Structure formats: C-alpha cells, structure tokens
Amino acid sequence: MNGISLLKCICDETRFGILELLQKNKELCVNDFVEKLKKDQPLVSHHLKTLKKCGIVKSRDEGKKAMYSISNNQLSVLISSVTNASKKIPVLCSEDSCC
Q1: Are 12 and 47 in contact (CB under 8 A)?
Q2: Considering just the CA atoms, what is the radius of gyration of the chain in Å?
Q3: How far apart are CA 17 and CA 15, in angstroms?
Q4: Which pLDDT score is estimated for 1?
Q5: CB distance 45 to 30 below 8 Å
Q6: How many CA atoms does the CB half-sphere of 45 hold within 13 Å?
Q7: Distances (CA, A) of 55 to 6, 73, 77, 84, 96
Q8: Which of 2-41 are b and which e, b meaning 16 or more Cβ less than 10 Å from the residue's Cβ?
Q9: Residue 70: how many CB atoms within 10 A of its CB?
Q10: Structure pTM?
Q11: Terminus-to-terminus CA distance in the chain, angstroms?
Q12: Residue 89 pLDDT class (50, 70, 90 cuts)
C-alpha cells in the first residue's frame, strides 16, 4: 500500500474516529464503537470491514464478539501523530468546503 492509498482508507470521519478510539483503547468491539461514536451499528460495521480489508485493523473472535485493534504499531503512531498535529495547528480547514 502506498501513502495515498493509506490516506484514502483513513480519510473518513467515522474511520478516523474508529482509529482514534483504537489508538487510545487498543481493542474494542463493534458495540463499543457504536456507543462512543454515536453512530448506527451497520455504518460502524461497514467502516470496520473497509479498514480490515485495507489491512489497517485486525480482528479476533472473543465468544460471540469480534474484537478489533490496529494492525501494527506504525499505524498507531501515525494516528496519534495526526491527532496531535491537528491540535497544534491553530487554523485547519476552518471552512466546511475546504476539503
């Protein structure tokens, strides 16, 4: 995967929210994302499936639940870096139409 493909995979509000939660919590199930993101379960599942298909997240079964985590440490560091950088830049996409 090249850089542009990676950014396309994570450049969605819900997907990035999922990744931020995983970066902080290490491992979560679909219901955790639904509760924390306040999004519908089918939407969250769709985005998790996309992130898994891209190789950005991985899952493991725990009873009837699937537990999701970021697939490798470099991706976790990237998510943390993007989040931290966005907090340090005073004016970032101030207009809804900029991106």
Answers
A1: yes
A2: 14
A3: 5
A4: 76
A5: yes
A6: 6
A7: 10, 13, 16, 23, 30
A8: eeeeeeebbeeebbebbbbbbbeeeebbbebbbebbebee
A9: 21
A10: 0.87
A11: 23
A12: confident
